[in-house]
Write a structure and sequence with these properties.
There is one protein chain. This protein has a domain of 249 residues: Amidase signature (AS) enzymes (Alpha-Beta Complex). It is built from 15 helices and eleven strands. Strands 1-3-2-4-6-5-10-11-9-7-8 form an eleven-stranded mixed β-sheet, sandwiched between helices. Strand 2, helix 4 and strand 3 form a beta-alpha-beta unit. Helix 2 packs antiparallel against helix 3, helix 7 runs antiparallel to helix 15 and helix 9 crosses helix 12. The protein is globular, with a radius of gyration of 21 Å. The protein binds glutamine. The site of glutamine has 13 residues, from strand 4.
């Protein structure tokens, strides 16, 4: 059996019934990685030995008759900006090329405790700054549907799409989970800010970063979210609310649900194939009993510039810790200052250096009011757009990205064009609400993503709409060209 073609909850059942062992399953995934990885390049590290050892331990636990959680024995991938104890975590940067964290990120630890098996760490843009993996210090990942196209910012989405992992964790500061899920035809969720602890996520922009799951169906998404959500005192921004059981949101009905269609997201610049799929999704939701109406979100166009001021400002401060003293790369020089300089020049790539400079500029005396404070005010205006929309609507529906996956190289030299590719996902991070990208068919050979956005801590509504679409259309699970 091609085990890597099955969903998490199907695999879980097979292991529960003892029809396959965790070791067999892990070997199947490792073999799949061996088959396709030279074409996809989704991983920076494959943890073969650790995975097999952990799999054998899981099998022993099961043989002893221990009750195991649903993710026990399931092979997973984690983006390489999420710390994993004893396993190299590079952030796709030269400056952390040899960094082995002495601890696990909370989300990674919770999955490990639930018995999930880490098969490897995935590629991303250096420090998650980008939308294509082209800013990785090591290599670019390829889109499983088209080797010439980018996968979005998370290699993990490509790994899940081709069956190198049954599910994955990514991070989302402006859209990395959702856009790469859309580009690779899988599901990606950015939870509410504070829903999943950020402890152990290597900080890029702390007020925007969130860890979230990437899966191939909504039931799997609920299982992963149930495992990783909930307060941890080590992250003071993690919310003190106890997460609900997300499986309760797997409801096949959108009857009476009010869905807003933000006008500004359907204007110019939307690829015709994406626009057509969106219309089809709206028709389907109406047919299923939802009420879809347009809504104004007038400050949408200012979200991208505000996001880049804020994220670069936070990054300039967060990345000050990489100085050749504490961890990672050190380039020797005559004196300490020289060592700092040489280390940071050699260790950071061009995009990261650009952002540190932009952020330092925005925070400097004389520019603080004009840049940083102004961006914070815009953030408030964008928030108010969402608050007003949520007075009338239960959730919002938009495209995840204006286009399907773009070609490798198409935007690599043009930062502004790259920044604009996340115009629909970025406002969500400024506001902190949850949003999910759901695959909805194919346009010109590449997957299209729908973005659903809900109120703070209302991930449940996203799962409900996703589950209903999954049960009532065949568009939800596109098969990559590099077939399973
Ligand atoms: N593209 C955005 C940036 O470069 C967001 C990327 C992300 O979500 N990690 O900042």
């Amino acid at each position: 059996m091609q085990l890597h073609t099955l969903l998490v909850h199907e695999l879980s059942e097979l292991m529960e019934k003892k029809e396959v062992s965790c070791e067999e399953l892990t070997r199947d995934y490792l073999q799949r990685i061996g088959q396709v990885e030279d074409k996809i390049k989704a991983f920076l590290t494959v943890t073969k030995e650790e995975a097999l050892a952990q799999a054998r331990a899981m099998d022993e636990q099961r043989a002893r008759g221990e009750a195991l959680p649903p993710l026990a024995g399931i092979p997973m991938a984690i983006n390489d900006n999420i710390c994993t104890q004893g396993i190299k975590t590079t952030c796709a940067s030269q400056i952390l090329y040899n960094f082995i964290p002495p601890y696990d990120a909370t989300a990674a630890a919770r999955l490990k405790n639930a018995g999930a098996i880490l098969v490897g760490k995935c590629n991303l843009d250096e420090f998650a700054m980008g939308s294509s993996t082209e800013h990785s210090a090591f290599y670019s990942t390829q889109n499983p549907f088209d080797p010439e196209a980018v996968p979005g910012g998370s290699g993990a989405a490509a790994a899940v799409a081709v069956g190198e992992a049954a599910f994955a964790l990514g991070s989302d500061t402006g859209g990395s989970i959702r856009q790469s899920a859309a580009f690779c035809g899988v599901i990606g969720l950015k939870p509410t800010y504070g829903c999943v602890p950020r402890y152990g996520l290597i900080s890029y922009a702390s007020s925007l970063d969130q860890i979230g799951p990437i899966t191939r169906d909504i039931t799997d998404l609920a299982l992963v979210l149930n495992t990783i959500a909930g307060r941890n005192a080590k992250d003071s921004t993690s919310a003190s609310v106890d997460g609900p059981d997300f499986k309760k949101s797997l409801v096949n009905s959108v009857k009476g649900l009010r869905i807003g269609l933000p006008k500004e997201y359907f204007k110019t610049g939307l690829a015709p194939g994406v626009a057509a799929k969106l219309q089809e999704a709206v028709r389907k939701l109406v047919e299923l009993g939802a009420v879809c109406e347009e809504v104004d979100m007038p400050h949408t166009e200012y979200a991208v510039p505000a996001h880049y001021i804020i994220s670069c400002a936070e990054a300039s401060s967060n990345l000050a810790r990489y100085d050749g003293v504490r961890h990672g790369l050190r380039v020797e020089a005559e004196d300490v200052l020289g060592m700092f300089k040489k280390t940071r020049i050699r260790g950071f790539g061009a995009e990261v250096q650009r952002r540190i400079m932009l952020g330092t500029h925005a925070l400097s005396t004389g520019n603080y009011e004009a840049c940083y404070m102004k961006a914070l005010k815009v953030r408030t205006l964008v928030k108010r757009d969402f608050e007003r929309a949520f007075e009338k609507f239960d959730c919002l529906l938009t495209p995840t990205s204006p286009t399907t996956a773009f070609k490798i190289g198409a935007k690599a030299e043009d930062s502004l064009a790259m920044y604009q590719s996340e115009v629909f996902t970025i406002p969500v991070n400024l506001v902190g609400v949850p949003a999910m990208s759901l695959p909805f068919g194919i346009a010109e050979g590449l997957p299209v993503g729908l973005q659903l956005i809900a109120r703070h801590f209302d991930e449940g509504t996203l799962l409900r709409v996703g589950y209903t679409l999954e049960q009532n259309t065949s568009e939800i699970r596109p098969k990559p060209g590099l077939s399973r």
